[in-house]
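Journal club side-thread
Mid-discussion, someone asked how the predicted structure for our own chain would compare to the paper's figures. Pasting it here so we can look after the session.
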Amino acid sequence: MPERPDLEHQVPILARRLIGTTITGVRVRKPVVLRAPLGLEVLVGRTVRDVRRMGHFVVVTFDGEWDMVVHLMLAGRFSFARAGQKDSGDLAVVWGLLGGGEGDEELRYRDDVQMGKVYLVPAGDLASVPGLLPVGIDVLGPAFTRERLGELVKKRREQVKVFLKDKNTIDSFGSAYADETLWEAGLHPKATTSTLSREQLDRLHAAMVKVLREAREEIARRDPPLDEKVRDFLAVRNRGGEPCPRCGAKIRSAGVHGHDAFFCPVCQPDLGGKGALDWRSIGK
C-alpha cells in the first residue's frame, strides 16, 4: 500500500489538481469499498476546499457538510483521466470534476483487490473513521527525539515491527519501510520492544528518521506518476533470496503478526526476542 513517503508525494499532486474543482457526478463500480450510508452522490455540486494526509489516510474537505476520507490499503491508487476515457478493469469509484484548469476530467480510484475504503462523514467528524485518530508522532518533526522514542516503547510488550506499524503511535510506517528501518538499525523484526537496550533504541531512532527522509527525497527526485508506487530502491523489502546489500547473506522472510517481514539473518540475527547484535561488530 502507499506509505508515508508515497503519500507525501501523491497528496500535493491531488491538492493541486482538486482544490477549487466542483464534483459534477459520481460513478461507483465497486460498492464494496464504500463506507458512505447516504452514498457519494451527496457530493455532487460541492467544491473541494482542501486535500491533506493524515497518517495513511487521504482527507478531502468540501464546502459543505461532508468530509471524504480514503484509506488506500493494499492496492488502492488514484489517477486522473479525461471524461469518457475507457475504464480500467480495477476501477472502483469515479468523481467527475469541473474547473480544475485541465478541462473536464475525472478523478478515479482504482483497487483491484477491493480492500481500500472510501468514507463519507459529517464535516469535522474524523474521529468516526476507524483507525484514523489519533495520528502518531511525526518521525520527521522536532518532537521525535531519542528520549521520546524511549518513552513510547517503555511500556510496550510487542515485536518491534508491530510497534513501528502502530499508526496511532508513529506517523507512520507500513510493512515496507518498517522492514527497511529494522535492517538499517540491525534489529530483528521479532525483537521485543521491552528488551531493547539504550544503544539499540538510539540506532532504531536514527534509522526511522533516515529511512523515511531518504525515501521521501528519492521519490520526490524521481517524481513518479500519481498511481505509481516506487519500491526498487529498497534494500530488503520483497527481496527474499537476494543478497543483503551490506553483508551478502541471503535475505529471508518471516511472519510477524500475520504479515511478511523481510530481513537479513546475519545483520539482524534472531536472539529470542532480545533485540539484535550490532551489525557493525560482525566479523571483528
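Post-session note: Confidence is low (pLDDT under 50) at residues 276-284.
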